[in-house]
């Protein structure tokens, strides 16, 4: 185990509540590309602006893109998120592909700073079985199925509930307790 986690700030998860329930709200509010028109270290950012910026803007309509040319300064990106966080990324000597990859990374982030997560619970005997997820005990055939699937859409034949079973037992005892016609 490395000790790199010792230098990370620690905290609890602060995720946007129910993001994706109904519709997904992208967390990147605006991105500012700062570059020099002449400096060689800004060439990758300039190439990205000329070739791929319109495609990026069409693919991310909820994100505002600002271009800020400045003289004799190194290229950088400043991402601002809905939760108020800002992230600064130096793009000095980046190629067009690297700028595109970092921009897609910043777009997919939530804006929460990278941190070592803390838990509210602690145990001296952690599990060796791994973390449970809703997909842990699912059939592997679901990986290759085409959805919607007829078999999975059929209603499940449910067992009678405890209340229904008690009512059935009560009805059977009522029938047995009634005198028959020959006994009358």
- Output the number of helix runs: 5
In the CATH scheme, the class of the domain at 23-108 would be Alpha Beta
Biggest sheet character = 4 strands, mixed
What is the second-level CATH architecture of the domain at 23-108?
A: 3-Layer(aba) Sandwich
The count of DSSP E runs of length 2 or more, i.e. the number of strands, is 6
Shape: elongated
Order of helices and strands: EEHHEEEHEHH
State the secondary-structure class: alpha/beta
Radius of gyration: 30 Å
Q: What is the typical, i.e. mean, pLDDT?
A: 84
Work out the strand percent: 15-25%
CATH-wise, what's the superfamily of the domain at 23-108? Answer: Glutaredoxin
Q: What is the share of helical residues?
A: 25-40%
Commentary on this structure:
With 184 residues, this protein is of the alpha/beta class. The protein has a domain at 23-108: Glutaredoxin, CATH 3.40.30. It is built from 5 helices and 6 strands, in the order ββααβββαβαα. The chain has a 4-stranded mixed sheet with strand order 3-2-4-5, covered by helices on one side. The protein is elongated and about 110 Å long.
